[in-house]
């Protein structure tokens, strides 16, 4: 298992953001669904080794991120796109991606080709020399995805990756996700259930810091059949039904 | 799957180190390329030109004097820019909300911040050295003696480094868009406080002000007759270097503690001495802090032992007595047709013509008379410091007019960039320096000689004015010598001077030869002057 989470809890002062989550997943695209404040981003930040759990155990890529050496090894094999991507407006797209390739300690000789490939994969080849300050929100998101995949990660964590992307880019991005999921574990946190339906092999639904559903998109769809949950698409109805059940 | 990361196998350690170095080099290239400093360089260059460069250009081309602008002016400008820019760079990750993104990468916080700091510092040091070159290159072309002093450059560079690290640390610990301007203002105030201490404006009882690279403009011939002892600059470099090293240690320690904290944007002191994560970094950081504090404390203690000597400040523990010997030189001299010889130190060769042109006409008026100087010779002014620069005086037999470069600097305003329009005034002042000791009673002791000639009486003033008028100079400005109670009025003195000046040169010379003793003794009145 590339992600092995057991009883993980995370508190911020008196607020319980993640409450005893258990999760196991291997290669493939894993969708993390849930309403605002469900704890998705906090869980992703813990998986990105940015913050540590208050309780519970976390093993990523077979290593314990609580120790210095293993944490470094995890980070070398990790790709992360935060919900709010911070960027340096004076950098060009290629420089931004190169900067993170260097921070991820990729072999310097491989960086130019990896940067070019990552930028091409998010369809920003024509904007590689453009300063980040000149890009639209969607393009910035794609630049963020490029820095996340530049090191060909074994564990890719994407927090709201399709926010701001146009429909054409979202379709292309889902294809990219499927390709990445063939070799790596891709965890995608999103509000958009259609992304989950189109790209994910597994899905978990979080509410109030807990995982209230874990299964395949088809299983989530099935939970909505016959239920009176709101939603235009079958997956949305499944999402609504599970949430309603969890809150009842 | 083959991960695109550097192998961590123990057998590949040298290759890993080389790769890490190459990666650091590329990161540094990116930081240099996209640093914020180049954007403000034009503004810094403009401030440098209008303040530092023009001030230096107004000074005589004497290395020590020109180099003094590095501490007095250049650092003042650089500390605000360097501190502000470094604070801006240091706060970048949090200001741009990139902390999560960079925190998920394996490169250590301190390593990442070090590269950002190095990029900023690299630009600022480059700008500083370019500024030094802009001062030193014209000086090298104009100076007639000596070579570039390096200690002011070292002390200045240490100043730039320490304010950069202070600014960077402020940016890291207190990130925000107002951090940079606040740091810039704070450093300006700090520098100004140090400068006021250095000038002795504040009533500080200690010698702490010596630790500030700011200082008063030195004597015009400092470093010409005597070596300038590097004791104080060494202490300054040690003090500022210590602060810089300690702050680097604090930055590294904070980075290590942040990595141990449950939330990475906070610092955790819990269990910080324990072995485990980053224990080597924490140890190095603690050693850096200790070494920095020790260096700064030592420098502070050394500054407390400083003694003021005739040639400047000395710190006994650092002082090299071999450097106290006078610097040998061969004076640059010129003789007038009348035989009067004018000599300057070779560092002032460029002014020999000015000095000779000022003195030769009045020297010709008194040539051959008893007590008239046969030569004018520049002597050290720094030897008289800090007791003040006495006026020029005549000494020896045959009499020699001794004047200091500092005195000439005061009298000859051209040394300090006063425009040529002020020429007659400084000419008159210098001629007065030759005539005052000639017309007044000879000093009866060495101490009296140091304090200069006694104030001239009315008749002596009239003769001096007449001789100077004959040489084409206006009457000199005399402070506290006009309006002798019960004596002749200024109008009577002026009338006597006009009468005497209208005489032929030979008649003036003959009258002086006959009445010089009585004139000096004050037994001749202004009305008795022909």
How many individual β-strands of chain A?
A: 9
Strand order of the largest sheet of chain A: 5-6-7-3-8-9
The global form of chain A is globular
Figure out the total of helices of chain A.
Answer: 9
Alpha carbon gyration radius of chain B: 32 Å
Contiguous low-pLDDT stretches of chain A (5 residues minimum) are none
- Fraction of residues in H or I helices of chain A: 25-40%
Biggest sheet features of chain B: 5 strands, mixed
Computed structural class of chain B: mainly alpha
Largest sheet of chain A: 6 strands, mixed
Q: Order of helices and strands of chain A, N to C?
A: EEEHEHEHHHEHEHEEHH
Biggest interface and residues each: A-B, 48 and 37 residues
Choose one word for the global shape of chain B: elongated
Order of the strands making up the biggest sheet of chain B: 3-4-5-7-6
DSSP summary: helix tally of chain B: 17
Kindly state the percentage of residues in helix of chain B. 55-70%
For the termini of chain A, the CA-CA separation is 33 Å
Quaternary state of the chains: heterodimer
Radius of gyration of chain A: 18 Å
Secondary structure elements and their pairing?
The complex is a heterodimer of chains A (248) and B (530).
Chain A: E1 3-12, E2 15-25, E3 28-33, H1 40-47, E4 55-60, H2 68-76, E5 78-81, H3 93-103, H4 111-121, H5 137-149, E6 155-159, H6 167-181, E7 185-190, H7 193-199, E8 202-207, E9 210-215, H8 217-224, H9 234-247
Helix pairs in contact in A: 3-4, 3-5, 4-5, 8-9
Chain B: H1 13-33, H2 37-58, H3 63-90, H4 92-95, H5 99-103, H6 109-142, H7 151-173, H8 179-198, H9 231-260, H10 279-304, E1 307-309, E2 312-314, E3 332-335, E4 341-344, H11 352-366, E5 375-379, E6 393-395, E7 400-404, H12 405-411, H13 423-439, H14 446-451, H15 458-470, H16 490-502, H17 505-521
Parallel strand pairs in B: 4-5, 5-7
Antiparallel strand pairs in B: 1-2, 3-4, 6-7
Helix pairs in contact in B: 1-6, 2-3, 2-6, 3-6, 3-7, 3-8, 6-7, 7-8, 7-9, 9-10, 11-13, 13-15, 15-16
């Amino acid at each position: 298992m590339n992600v092995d989470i057991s009883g993980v809890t995370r508190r911020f002062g008196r607020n319980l953001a993640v409450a005893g989550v258990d999760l196991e997943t291997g290669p493939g695209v894993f969708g993390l669904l849930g309403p605002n404040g469900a704890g998705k981003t906090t869980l992703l930040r813990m998986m990105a080794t940015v913050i540590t759990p208050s309780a519970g155990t976390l093993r990523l890529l077979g290593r314990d991120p609580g120790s210095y050496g293993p944490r470094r090894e995890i980070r070398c094999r990790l790709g992360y796109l935060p919900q709010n991507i911070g960027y340096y407006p004076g950098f060009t797209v290629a420089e931004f991606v190169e900067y993170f390739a260097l921070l991820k300690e990729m072999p310097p000789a491989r960086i130019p080709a990896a940067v070019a490939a990552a930028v091409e994969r998010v369809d920003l080849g024509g904007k590689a020399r453009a300063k980040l300050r000149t890009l639209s929100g969607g393009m910035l998101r794609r630049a963020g995805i490029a820095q996340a995949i530049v090191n060909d990660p074994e564990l890719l964590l994407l927090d709201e990756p399709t926010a701001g992307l146009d429909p054409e880019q979202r379709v292309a991005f889902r294809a990219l996700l499927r390709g990445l999921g063939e070799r790596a574990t891709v965890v995608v946190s999103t509000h958009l259930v259609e992304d989950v339906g189109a790209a994910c092999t597994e899905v978990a639904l979080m509410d109030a810091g807990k995982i209230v559903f874990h299964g395949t998109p088809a299983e989530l769809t099935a939970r909505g059949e016959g239920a009176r949950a709101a939603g235009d698409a079958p997956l949305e109805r499944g999402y609504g039904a599970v949430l309603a059940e969890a809150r009842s | 799957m083959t991960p695109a990361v550097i192998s961590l196998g123990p057998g590949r350690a040298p290759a890993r180190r080389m790769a890490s170095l190459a990666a650091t080099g590329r990161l540094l290239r990116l930081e240099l390329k996209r640093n914020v400093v180049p954007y403000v360089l034009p503004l810094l260059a403009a401030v440098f030109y209008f303040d530092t460069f023009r001030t230096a250009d107004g000074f005589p081309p004497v290395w020590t004097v020109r180099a003094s602008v590095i501490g007095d002016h250049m650092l003042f400008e650089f500390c605000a820019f360097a501190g502000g820019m470094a604070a801006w760079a240091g706060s970048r990750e949090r200001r741009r909300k990139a902390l999560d993104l960079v925190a998920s990468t394996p490169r250590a916080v301190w390593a990442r911040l070090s590269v950002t700091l190095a990029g900023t510092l690299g630009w600022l040091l480059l700008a500083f050295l370019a500024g030094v070159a802009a001062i030193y290159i014209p000086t090298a072309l104009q100076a007639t003696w000596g070579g570039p002093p390096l200690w002011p450059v070292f002390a200045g560079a240490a100043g730039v480094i320490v304010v950069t690290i202070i600014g960077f640390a402020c940016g890291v610990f207190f990130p925000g868009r107002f951090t940079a301007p606040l740091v810039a203002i704070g450093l300006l105030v700090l520098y100004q406080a140090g400068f006021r201490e250095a000038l002795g404006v504040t009533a500080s009882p200690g010698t702490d002000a010596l630790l500030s690279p700011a200082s008063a403009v030195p004597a015009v011939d400092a470093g010409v007759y005597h070596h300038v002892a590097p004791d104080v600059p060494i202490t300054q470099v040690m003090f500022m270097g210590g602060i810089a090293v300690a702050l680097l240690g604090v930055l590294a320690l904070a980075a290590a503690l942040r990595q141990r904290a449950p939330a990475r944007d906070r610092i955790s002191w819990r269990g910080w001495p324990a072995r485990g994560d980053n224990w080597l970094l924490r140890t190095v950081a603690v050693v850096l802090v200790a070494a920095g504090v020790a260096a700064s404390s030592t420098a502070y203690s050394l500054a407390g032992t400083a003694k003021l000597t005739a040639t400047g400040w000395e710190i006994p523990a650092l002082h090299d007595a071999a450097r106290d010997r006078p610097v040998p030189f061969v004076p640059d001299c010129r003789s007038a047709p009348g035989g009067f010889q004018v000599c300057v130190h070779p560092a002032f060769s460029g002014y020999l013509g000015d000095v000779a042109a000022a003195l030769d006409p009045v020297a010709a008026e008194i040539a051959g008379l008893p007590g008239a100087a046969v030569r004018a010779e520049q002597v050290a002014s720094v030897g008289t410091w800090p007791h003040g620069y006495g006026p020029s005086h005549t000494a020896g037999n045959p009499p020699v007019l001794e004047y200091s470069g500092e005195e000439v600097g005061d009298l000859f305003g051209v040394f300090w960039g006063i425009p040529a329009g002020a020429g007659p005034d400084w000419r008159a002042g210098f001629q007065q320096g030759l005539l005052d000791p000639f017309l007044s009673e000879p000093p009866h002791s060495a101490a009296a000689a140091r304090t200069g000639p006694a104030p001239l009486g009315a008749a002596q003033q009239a003769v001096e004015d007449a001789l100077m008028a004959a040489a084409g100079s206006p009457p000199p400005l005399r402070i506290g010598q006009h309006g002798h109670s019960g004596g002749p009025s200024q109008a009577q003195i002026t009338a006597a001077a006009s009468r005497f000046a209208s005489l032929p040169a030979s008649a003036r010379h003959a009258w002086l030869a006959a009445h010089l003793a009585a004139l000096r003794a004050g037994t001749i009145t202004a009305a008795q002057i022909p």
